[in-house]
Design a protein that fits this description.
heterodimer; A: about 350 residues; eight-stranded parallel β-barrel; five-stranded antiparallel β-sheet; B: two-stranded antiparallel ribbon
Chain lengths: ~350, ~800
């Protein structure tokens, strides 16, 4: 090879390496599967009033939505009842979103669910969850059950899940998993489902205002994941982006409001004084109109504001990464609420959903 | 393009035509009608429970009964009894009568109202031991079964849950296959029932089985309620007709009738609502909301007796915010002792107060709805014409009250009080006295006694040309009485503050101007609108309607060592600016307002002396800190209003006045160009103090873009004094550069003020007449590059250059 050929080869190799490097550098960062919980009493898509929400989902390329369809509770007077069925309004004929209906069951329901009734209620839960299929064009492939089961109710819960699977075997089933159940599968059992979603929020005790942030507490979370690599079932992750206001009277939690905006709250500052960051003592009576009902605040009441902001979200994501969250995982943000979402920027959402950390 | 221009002109003209001349909008907010409505006649004088939202004075009233939110009714429960508790009382009484051996009302309330469904079933065993009502019920299985069922029904209704099987859009599941429902399910009305079918059916079965009449009616009542929330009209009608329609007409009947009425329409619905309104205080608001007055003629035909028809008249009257003497007449004829008649007369008086006294004592006039918007002049005519109509209407009311007063069964003292006040409102003070003479205060309730004293005070003040010490002491007594009553009825605070606003205006009209001005501070009612802050306060009143003599008197009262009780009241805390909180008078601010008056009166020396009495810190606080960094003797050639904050000189108001006085002394002694330059600086100072200047704070309390249109006669609004000094300066100037500078100022500083300064032609003529070289002036007004060279070349421009030309 003459010198010119060598030079040409060297130049070619250099250019190749350069392009490869540029190519690597400009590759789009991988992202998790983006998803949201829709946790409201009305589910609307494609309607006039859901314009903002729809555009948000499109802009952020959210392809999967977990929609709460039903709250099931037990009352002594009425037994196990559907206390809240989500009202649905949906106009998208060519919607490509994947929908997962969610049934929320209180542990009290499980306490009163007899073996004889399991089949009946399993059928109710499936049919009420699958109401969603009446309205959405994409085929529903998965049903999720959200329940904070205990050792006491584990047996009937798992029986319920198994029965659901037997009643509609074509469907995939997932359940939500609290940190305690994640940490102690030997005590809490492994639910007979296809997949679990680890809930990285609602981990504290909101009933006690002196405790730390009950929405997300990094230190507490670390205790639960210490030495853990993952779970025996495939696992997705639910992270918090919400805030709430807890109302205490005589040291007793008497109300949780999710609908108080900062503006609304600020106007009541004259009726209260801050005793600790985020904790206020009511000094004069006032009334607020939240969540469609009037709430009275009396002197001596405590109001605690708890938030899951960007720092909590990043910490939760760090936890999820340690537990094996990868580009195949679905990251579900709780929940799809316009007021809460507007507290974050577009870039912040990208940061949460990006695999680069 | 032409058509585009035409379109633009058309839109602009349309905006001008449609722009409202009479508005109550101020700086970014709207004041609601009820907030500035004038009223001092206590609407709860003959209060009937559950009618508070229909007081003509109530803010809620303006919502036209379509919106109900408890927190808009501040003090609602203080003004009248809690209507829900009245409802409980009736039920308690019936249970006590039924139980015979039971006397513990609290035990009944604990179970029925203070223990929710879940708690009841969880704690039932304990309650059966601890609660006297349940202990008694335990001995009577049928009663306990009823209570259990009532609690079950309550739990179902409160949770709002339907049966699992009541699902119109659920798919069906069979042999591992799902069959989705077909069709459209987007109908908003297609909502789930809120009650379980089996509970409604259970109510019917239990009703049929029950033999005890007391419990049977209650099962029927539960059936009505459950069917109502379960949207089951057939079951509702069945339960009502079989169990309640033919029984006693007690609270249970009327409460159930409210649910039953929901299945009626038109006149039937309106008639039933009128009857429920009569008997159920806790349902009055909802009845008025649902009542449709357009079915009046048919509704009265459904009445079986005078009372039922009278209640339709009551509903018509409540629905009518306009004159409703006809309804009052009908009501008096049908049932003169109807409980609602006095309430409706008070409501009519509150309307007349708004219509007749509102234009006098509210800064926003009456809340009378004038159709459309009008220009000021047309609006004035309209208001005057309406006022005459309303006076005529008030006289008709008076004539009707005369008839009522002749009827022996009527409450003479109450109606004479009403008539006396209406006569006062129409301006017939003699007749008013005659009516008041009929009132024996001993025959009045304590509330009415206060009202009578208030009406007599107003009458006496209006009847006398001067304010007497008797008026002052009556006023103080009334205030004390109203403050006492305010503890039980927050509405008395409104009355108190309206009375203060009334007194302030009446005191001023009777020569007690300083006292009147100070009284304004004690009221936060809309006694005067204000361009800048919406509603006037004591300080704006001192400036806007007071003069220097009045303000000096105010200061004298504040400083007086041995104050009378009335003076002590005046000098005590007032509503502060920008808030509804009481604060002490700000003496510095009052003195500053005095200096503003004095500057406007051109009493600069006296103004300066007063500024020296003001705390020095005052000048570094807001708003003066906003003016601290500018030199008011230097005016920007490009924008005289601009505060560029580039000056190294700082002036407090005393320093400014002192320098202005010094300049005037020096100018008087000087001559030629020196005199001209001094006069020019004085002109600048006056320009700065004008509406267009940057140091308007020297003579004006507020600056608002609305002021220009409203104060055309205000000498300070336009820089007339500056013009005078600029002209004087130009008359003495011989230097062409100085002449140019003054000429430019006379031109209006290129700020479009040539209408009231001088036009370019006139300035040029002025300069030529004085044989001044106009070259530099022409350069200057053209703002060309040479202008900066001129600025740097001559000593006359030093202040301007130092302040506005960046180095």
């Amino acid at each position: 090879m003459n010198t010119n050929t060598l030079k040409a080869l060297a130049l070619g190799s250099f250019l190749l390496i350069l392009f490869a490097l540029i190519g690597l550098g400009t590759r789009k960062p991988q992202a998790f599967n983006r998803s949201f919980y829709h946790w409201k009493s009305r589910f609307e898509r494609g309607t006039y009033s859901s314009i903002w929400q729809d555009s948000f989902l499109n802009r952020h390329q959210v392809k999967k939505l977990y929609v709460k369809m039903l709250d099931v509770d037990y009352t002594p007077a009425n037994g196990i009842i559907p206390v809240s069925k989500t009202y649905i309004e949906h106009y998208h004929a060519h919607d490509s979103m994947e929908y997962v209906p969610v049934v929320y069951i209180t542990n009290l329901v499980l306490k009163h669910l007899t073996e004889a009734d399991v089949k009946k209620f399993a059928e109710h839960f499936i049919t009420h969850a699958m109401r969603l299929q009446t309205y959405v064009p994409t085929k529903i492939k998965e049903i999720q059950v959200d329940c904070d089961w205990t050792q006491e109710t584990q047996k009937v819960y798992f029986q319920l899940l198994t029965t659901m699977k037997q009643l509609l075997p074509t469907m995939k089933y997932s359940v939500t998993l609290r940190l305690y159940a994640f940490r102690y599968p030997d005590k809490m059992g492994v639910p007979p489902v296809d997949k679990v979603v680890l809930m990285l929020y609602n981990m504290g005790n909101a009933r006690d205002y002196t405790e730390g942030n009950s929405i997300f507490n990094y230190t507490e979370t670390l205790k639960y994941i210490k030495g853990k690599k993952g779970y025996v079932l495939p696992m997705d992750f639910a992270l918090p982006i919400f805030s709430w206001t807890c109302h205490y009277r005589y040291n007793r939690l008497i109300g949780i409001f999710s609908g108080i905006s900062d503006e609304s709250f600020n106007q009541y500052h004259k009726y209260m004084k801050q005793v600790k960051p985020g904790i206020f003592l009511v000094t004069a009576p006032f009334t607020d109109y939240v969540n469609n009902k009037t709430s009275d605040f009396r002197p001596g009441d405590i109001i605690k504001i708890e938030k899951a902001g960007m720092s909590e979200l990043e910490q939760a994501k760090r936890v999820a990464l340690r537990l094996g969250m990868n580009s195949q995982s679905t990251v579900i943000l709780f929940d799809l609420d316009e007021d809460e979402l507007k507290k974050f920027t577009y870039e912040e959402f990208n940061k949460v959903w990006g695999t680069n950390f | 393009m032409k058509s585009l221009i035409k379109f633009g002109v058309l839109i602009f003209s349309a905006c001008l035509v449609c722009w409202p001349a009479h508005r109550t909008n101020s700086c970014g907010f709207t004041i609601s009608d009820a907030e500035y409505r004038f009223w001092v006649f206590n609407p709860s004088l003959k209060g009937i429970d559950g009618t508070y939202p229909f007081f003509y004075t109530s803010e809620l009233y303006n919502e036209k009964f379509t919106y109900y939110n408890e927190y808009t009714l501040e003090g609602y429960t203080s003004v009248e009894a809690n209507t829900q508790e009245l409802y409980y009382d009736e039920n308690n009484k019936q249970w006590l009568t039924y139980a015979k051996t039971l006397s513990d009302t609290l035990a009944i309330e604990e179970v029925l109202y203070n223990t929710n469904s879940d708690e009841y079933f969880t704690l039932k065993d304990k309650l059966l031991e601890s609660n006297a009502f349940l202990r008694w019920a335990k001995g009577n299985e049928a009663v306990l079964n009823y209570i259990d069922f009532a609690k079950k029904a309550e739990g179902n209704i409160n949770v709002g849950a339907a049966d699992w099987n009541s699902c119109f859009d659920c798919p069906t599941l069979s042999q591992g296959k799902l069959k989705v429902k077909e069709g459209e399910y987007y109908d908003y009305n297609n909502e789930y029932p809120n009650v379980r079918r089996e509970v409604i059916d259970e109510a019917t079965v239990l009703f049929e089985k029950e033999t005890d009449p007391f419990l049977k009616r209650r099962y029927a009542f539960q059936g009505v309620r459950l069917a109502y929330y379960g949207r089951d009209s057939a079951s509702l009608t069945h339960s009502f007709q079989k169990g309640l329609a033919n029984g006693p007409k007690d609270w249970l009947y009327y409460d159930a009738l409210m649910y039953e009425a929901s299945g009626s329409h038109g006149a039937q619905l309106s008639f039933k609502l009128a009857q429920v309104f009569d008997k159920c205080p806790n349902k009055r608001f909802r009845c008025v909301q649902l009542y449709d007055p357009t079915h009046y003629a048919e509704a009265v035909m459904l009445a079986n007796n005078n009372h039922e028809q009278a209640m339709v008249e009551v509903m018509q009257a409540i629905h009518n915010p306009q004159p409703c003497l006809n309804q009052l007449k009908n009501l008096s004829w049908l049932e003169p002792k109807n409980d609602f008649l006095p309430f409706l007369w008070i409501r009519e008086i509150n309307k007349l107060e708004d219509w007749l006294l509102g234009p006098l004592y509210s800064g926003f006039g009456s809340t009378r709805a004038y159709n459309g918007y009008y220009y000021e002049e047309d609006m004035h005519k309209l208001v005057m014409a309406q006022l005459l109509n309303d006076k005529a209407y008030a006289k008709l009311c008076l004539a009707n009250l005369d008839l009522l007063l002749q009827r022996p069964e009527m409450d003479k003292h109450f109606y004479a009080l009403c008539a006396g006040y209406i006569a006062y409102m129409v301006g017939d003070l003699a007749k008013s006295s005659e009516y008041y003479a009929l009132v024996d205060p001993n025959q009045l309730s304590s509330k009415a006694k206060t009202q009578f004293a208030l009406c007599k005070y107003m009458h006496s003040l209006s009847a006398n040309p001067k304010v007497s010490n008797t008026h002052r002491s009556s006023f103080l007594n009334l205030i004390a009485q109203l403050e006492e009553e305010e503890k039980a009825n927050p509405d008395m605070k409104f009355i108190k503050e309206q009375l203060i606003a009334f007194s302030a205006k009446e005191f001023m009209a009777r020569g007690a101007r300083a006292e009147g001005l100070m009284l304004f501070g004690k009221s936060n009612k809309g006694y005067q609108s204000h361009d800048y802050i919406g509603v006037a306060n004591a300080y704006t009143q001192l400036y806007e309607i007071g003069n220097s003599a009045n303000v000096k008197e105010v200061i004298a009262i504040l400083d007086k060592k041995e104050k009378s009780a009335f003076e002590a009241y005046l000098a005590s805390a007032i509503y502060s600016e920008y808030s509804y909180e009481y604060k002490d008078w700000n003496r510095d601010k009052v003195m500053d307002l005095l200096t503003m008056h004095l500057v406007k009166e051109d009493k600069l020396g006296e103004a300066y002396q007063w500024t020296l009495r003001i705390n020095k810190n005052y000048w570094s606080a807001e708003p003066y800190n906003l003016f601290a960094k500018d030199d008011p003797f230097v005016v920007s050639p490009w924008n005289g209003h601009a505060a560029l904050n580039q000056s190294r000189k700082t002036y407090t108001k005393p320093e400014f006045l002192k320098k202005l006085l010094e300049l005037k002394v020096r100018a008087a002694k000087a001559s030629g160009n020196e005199k001209a330059s001094l006069l020019y600086l004085i002109g600048n100072a006056y320009f700065s103090m004008s509406y267009h200047g940057k140091y308007w704070i020297a003579q004006h309390y507020y600056w608002s873009s609305m002021m220009e249109a409203k104060n055309k006669q205000d000498e300070f609004m336009y820089p007339n004094r500056a013009k005078y000094y600029y002209k004087e300066a130009l008359a003495h100037a011989t230097d062409k550069n100085l002449g140019a500078l003054i000429g430019n100022a006379l031109l209006g500083l290129n700020t479009g003020l040539d209408d009231y300064m001088l036009s370019e032609d006139k300035v040029l003529k002025w300069m030529e007449d004085r044989k001044l070289n106009t070259d530099v002036f022409i350069q200057m007004k053209g703002n060309c590059d040479l202008f900066y060279e001129i600025l740097n070349s001559n000593a006359y421009f030093v202040p301007l250059r130092d302040n506005y030309v960046k180095k």
